[in-house]
Amino acid sequence: METAPFLIEIENPEPGTTRLTLSGDFDYTTSGDLAAMTPTLVSHGLMMLEVDLTGVTFIDSSGLATLIHLYHAAEEHPAEMRFVGMTPYIAHLFEVTALDQVFNLPTSAA
Amino acid sequence: MDSVTHAPSTEVLRAIVEAAADGVVLCDADGSVVLVNGAAREMVPGDVTSLLDRTREPGETYETALGDRLLRVRREIFGIVHQAWYLRDVTKETARADALRAERERTQFLVEAGRRLSASLNTRRCARATAELATGLLADAAMVVLPPGGLRRTAWLRSSEAGLEEGDIPVAHADQVPGLAEALAGFPPVPSRWLDPHQAPEWLLPAGFGPVGHLLVTPLPGNGVPAGALVLARREGGAGFDDETETLVRVFAARAGAAISAAVLYQEQSATNAILAGDLRPPPLPTVDGLELAGSLRAAQQTALIGGDFYDVLPTSDGPLVTLGDVCGKGPRAAVLAGQVRHSLRALLLLERDPEQLMHLINKALLSSYTPRSHVTLVLAAIHPGDGMIDLAVAGHPAPLLLRADGVVDEVDARGTLLGAIKSGAITLRTATVELAPGDLLLLYSDGITEAFGGPTGREMYGSARLKTALATCAGMPATAVVERLEQLNSDWLAGGVFDDRALLAIRRSR
Fold first, then answer.
1. CB contact under 8 A, A101 and B421
2. CA atoms in the 13 A half-sphere facing the CB of B291
3. Residue ranges of the STAS domain (chain A) (predicted)?
4. Contact between residue B403 and residue B443 where contact means Cβ atoms under 8 Å apart
5. Is position A96 within any domain?
6. Per-domain residue ranges of chain B
7. What is the pLDDT tens value at each position of chain B, 511 positions in all?
8. Does A77 touch chain B (CB under 8 A)?
9. What residues of chain A lie within 8 A of the CB of B373, using their CB?
10. What architecture (CATH level 2) is domain B100-274?
11. Using the beta-carbon criterion (under 8 Å), do B326 and A62 form an inter-chain contact?
């Protein structure tokens, strides 16, 4: 299987808002990058963390765990974290794990 | 002035030959010596003719020993009828060449040692390579004494003309070999000449080895700890261990020690992994009256990465509780977590059999775990074998599939939150109760099945739709056959590609 490289893009569209665009395979081998970045992402002044998963081709349990960890970090900060884009595959995954009950998801995706 | 234009006189020729740095012996057509120059007389004080090999062709060069020196001799035609023999003392030159050859041999030896020692991560094979490499160039017999594994005995391997032998000795016997106890403790080696070879005990050498003339005992240094010792023995009458050899042995011992200690560490780690992976290994399924049970668990191909899928069928007095789950992550941490969940379930089952209540309890237990990211997905199915009713709870896991006897496939309408993930402790669960009529089958599976990448492009997921279609073709088949078929179809889809853990567990009501 050709694995799609995992990429993280970080933008600050406006003060207090950070937009995280993830793409590629977000799994056991790649999730460490985002996990390591979490304390930096959720730092002083953050109010809104937007996560775009449109380009993510695969998430395994480690990837999911990293998102949960990020969610908890934002909640404690406190800042809001919301998902601004995802594929039907990821929407289904969130449904199976019932994370759709926890996460702030876009209404159009599912 | 005239003499310059004429051929040189015999006296002049004689003077030239006499002054030559090389030894020259001149013979006439009959082979009688007519001239021996000063250099030749100096080289060969006695009878020079004994060195002249008349069977050699003109132009040929040969070497001949004279006492402790080596002479190189060349036969030539000189003038028309005379034969000349040129002599050169090459003792020093040859000694330098020998030294160079010995140096090359040592380098070659170390290259070969590096190649053989790096080829294995097995302690015994590394020790064997060490002993075999050392026999020949370094010694007549070489014994590797491994670091004591237990408290009482320690293993050894020995290589000699008698072949490879192995055994063990009481650790205390190391004291019998001069320098061995010190080497095993990691002390630097002492020069061979300080060790009395006659003190070597009988067990140190192969049967019929004969008297030992020289002994060299060197520690095998590992990663900060001694990885054993190398004992080298040479027979009486043979050459001793010179400084060059002792240096070579130390360099060789450093390489061998590094290889052996790496192998020891690797084996300890893989033993630990094997113990941990044991917690993930599927258990033998019990026989339950009225039910057929079949399971399959394929671990991910990355062997170093223990995966997190597991299943169990736990019998209770009211009927079996079936579990199938997937813990977050890979490696030893995943194995430990899976073990914790399986053992927690066993214990909780003594008090509680309701799947929904069990989910809440496991979730709380995971949230109080010290291990970060103790996330688990789980399906629990409490089966009443008498009437075929099954109480199901699903947490963060794909919902089980129902295959009716007529080939209709339904997804069980149950879902719930991933366990151990949400800090507030609140999980939502929608449980279900399904009835398994005779001939019906319930299939529990892990996401490794549906998320298997493969197909024509190699990048397509198998998906739940394909799984349902495949399952529909299995109506009427025994549970074992269903699991085998689904596993086969899934493997075909993967077509040898990389896969995650894949678990399947089928419960069929036989009557």
1. no
2. 27
3. 15-110
4. yes
5. yes
6. 2-89, 100-274, 284-509
7. 454 556 667 788 788 888 888 898 988 888 888 888 888 888 888 888 888 888 888 889 998 888 888 889 998 887 777 888 899 988 888 888 888 888 888 889 999 998 888 888 888 899 999 999 999 889 999 999 988 776 688 899 999 998 999 998 888 888 899 889 888 888 888 888 888 988 889 899 999 899 999 999 999 988 777 789 999 999 998 889 999 899 999 999 999 999 998 888 888 888 877 777 776 677 889 988 899 999 998 876 555 556 788 999 999 888 999 999 998 877 777 888 888 899 999 999 999 999 999 999 999 999 888 777 788 999 999 999 889 999 999 999 999 999 999 999 999 999 999 999 888 888 889 999 999 999 999 999 998 888 888 888 878 889 899 999 999 999 999 999 999 999 989 888 888 777 778 899 999 998 6
8. no
9. 65, 69
10. 2-Layer Sandwich (3.30)
11. no
Q: Which is nearest to B361 in space by CA: B315, B427, B309, B314?
A: B427
- Nearest of B387, B390, B385, B393 to residue B402 by alpha carbon: B390
B2-89: what fold?
Answer: Beta-Lactamase (3.30.450)
CB of B502 within 8 Å of a chain A CB? The answer is no
Q: Residue A77, exposed/middle/buried by CB under 10 A (0-12, 13-18, 19+)?
A: middle
Q: Which residue of B has its CA nearest to A61?
A: B328
Count, residues in chain A: 110
ipTM of model over 0.85:
no
A23: number of Cβ within 10 Å? 17
Residue A43, domain member (yes or no): yes
Specify whether the backbone of B420 is left (phi greater than 0), alpha (psi in -120 to 50) or beta: left
How many other C-beta atoms can be found within 10 angstroms of the C-beta atom of residue A35?
Answer: 16
Looking at the complex, does the CB of residue B454 fall below 8 Å from at least one CB of chain A? yes
d(CA B496, CA A72): 38
Q: Which residue has the tokens 């876009």?
A: A106
Q: Is residue A1 part of a domain?
A: no
Beta bridge partners of B461: B453
The CATH number assigned to the domain holding A52 equals 3.30.750.24
- The domains spanning B2-89 and B100-274 adopt the same CATH topology: yes
Spell B188-201 as b/e; 16+ CB within 10 A means b: ebbebeebebeebe
Asked, for residue A110, whether it belongs to a domain, the answer is no
Report yes or no: B186 and B229 within 8 Å, Cβ to Cβ.
no
